[in-house]
Amino acid sequence: MAGFRYRPEILDGMPESDIMYLKEYEDWFVLESDELKKITDHFVKELEKGLTKEGGNIPMNVTWVMGFPSGHETGRVLTLDMGGTNLRVCDVCLSTRKRDFEQTQRKFKLPDEVKTGTGEQLWDFIAGRLETFLHEHHDGGQTGTTLPLSFTFSFPVDQKSIRSGVLQRWTKNFNVSGVEGQDIIPQLEAAFKRKNLPVRIVALINDTTGTLIASHYLDPQVKVGSIFSTGCNAAYMEECELIPKLADIGLPKNAKVIINTEYGAFDNDHKVLPLTPFDRQIDRESARPGTQIYEKMVSGLYIGEMLRLIMLTLHEQGRLFKDQDITRLRNENALEASFLSVAELDFSDGLDDMREEFEESLGLSPNLNELKICRYLIGLVATRAARLYACGIAAICKKKNMRKCHVGVDGSVFNKYSGFKGRAAQGLRDIFDWPPNELELIALNSSEDGSGVGAALAAALVLEGEQKAKPL
Ligand code: BGC
Questions:
Q1: CB of 433 closer than 8 Å to CB of 393
Q2: pLDDT-derived band of residue 470, with 50, 70 and 90 as boundaries?
Q3: pLDDT average, residue stretch 289-313
Q4: Cα(180) to centroid of ligand 1, in Å?
Q5: S-S: 149 plus which of 78, 114, 143, 355, CB 3.0-4.6 Å?
Q6: Whose CA is nearest to atom 11 of ligand 1?
Q7: Active-site residue numbers?
Q8: For residues 147 and 183, what is the distance between their CA atoms, to the nearest angstrom?
Q9: Exposure of 468 by Cβ count < 10 A (0-12 exposed, 13-18 middle, 19+ buried)?
Q10: Residue nearest atom 1 in ligand 1 by C-alpha distance
Q11: Which of 171, 226, 291, 301 to mutate to test the pocket of ligand 1 (most atoms within 8 A of CB)?
């Protein structure tokens, strides 16, 4: 099709003059290899900058997890994982056999009021769910012993130790008052105390740190842990001597520590990311404008919204859903990432599943041509997200000179959006110029539900350390 850089097959048969306006969307959303390489190179510099005392856009938070588990860790740990959408409570039992564990878990949806209420409401909600879990699985925790607990908190915190963490800022449109700038551990402990829960917090970790630990435990070739879900981020192990901001602490020469990059904040100063008018609108209308610019272009929380804004614009230009009632399309965040994923899985001639989704989620009945146009737009938005995601992973590997490794990735979008992984892998291939016949040197491997065991292992490392430190 003349004018388009890529011949969008889905648009075959439609008169060119009717769809030439889509060319602008191609120009906005298609990222060629050269652009990915440029973004990655700038990303590497920003990762470096985050490790300096002056800092930069990317926080590069020191986690105080200073080694990987050996695989011989044992013990029983409760874990709480507060993500962007759910709270997961887990009881993990690390067995005496190498790399073996059992876990019982329960998931609770985080209600919207809890995401935007007060700190006390949030912590009481978490303590309440833990109490329910203890009643179901631990005789209410009345066994007389205090249980060690590891807390996975999927937000950026500044940590002076593994048992503390000051929330730098809320992300993922959370807006809970009284928590930013505060150490979250005493706040959560106070909520446990209000309910008399027999638990002791031994570790506070990020979800990417948990994923890295859990996937490295099962596959030592894993060097990066990443989440691609409501939010997007990655963690890796760094040599302390390469972290200038730790220079004055007097750590042993060969010490290492896991860095939670918090790279969703990449390019907050708008140096390289090719922002479209829709990206700017999403940022403007978010709970924290000016923050998490990369995450807002990439992660699951925003890709549905991106599609909604594009469709709304095209409707207003008289190009889509003529004479239809678009009331629901006007609702902010009306579409989740799963809408895009379902649409892309529809290979029927009439795009019937896709039509059903439009009816269910938006009360719209598009004609076939409109469905095809939306399908094309979904491809653009999702491919851009996957290719930009590849830049962050590539940047960590480039920074660490890792030509070959595995990356453990958890998160609903990565695990459930079929096609996402392939597109991200192609992005890595384009950045590193691997020939088509060469295997993927940096392989993105799904690490599902690693959070519980990762957090339990982090706690086991702390408990082991405490044990060693005890006088004989
Ligand atoms: C948070 C990170 C987290 C990521 C994935 C981001 O919004 O800032 O701490 O790892 O989401 O959950």
A1: no
A2: low
A3: 97
A4: 15
A5: 78
A6: 231
A7: 154, 169, 207
A8: 22
A9: exposed
A10: 155
A11: 171
The answer to whether 420 and 414 have CB atoms below 8 angstroms apart is yes
Specify the fold of 66-215+449-459.
Nucleotidyltransferase; domain 5 (3.30.420)
CB-ligand 1 contact for 84 (6 Å cutoff)? yes
Q: Within 10 Å of residue 44's Cβ, how many Cβ atoms?
A: 17
What are the tokens at 286?
């978010």
Tabulate helix, strand, coil % of the chain (nearest 5): 45, 15, 35
Residue 237: its H or E element:
strand 232-239
Helix ranges (H only) for 116-236 are 119-137, 184-194, 207-218
- pLDDT at position 4: 78
CB count in 10 Å sphere of residue 360: 11
Of the two residues 101 and 321, the one the predictor is more confident about is 321
What distance in Å separates the CA atoms of residue 384 and residue 390, rounded to the nearest whole number?
10
CB atoms within 10 A of CB 78: 28
DSSP string, 361-430: HH-----HHHHHHHHHHHHHHHHHHHHHHHHHHHHHHHHTT-SSEEEEEESHHHHHSTTHHHHHHHHHHH
Residue-wise over 3-14: b if at least 16 C-beta within 10 A, else e? ebeeebeebeeb
CA 178 to ligand 1 center in whole angstroms: 19
- Of ligand 1's listed atoms, the one at least distance from the Cα of 265 is 8
CA distance 92 to 110: 22
Span from the CA of 59 to the centroid of ligand 1 (angstroms): 12
What average pLDDT does range 424-432 have in this prediction? Answer: 97
4 conformational bin, left if phi > 0, alpha if psi -120 to 50, beta if neither: beta
Q: How far is the CA of 468 from the centre of ligand 1 (A)?
A: 33
Global pTM value: 0.95
Q: Is the CB of 207 under 6 A from ligand 1?
A: yes
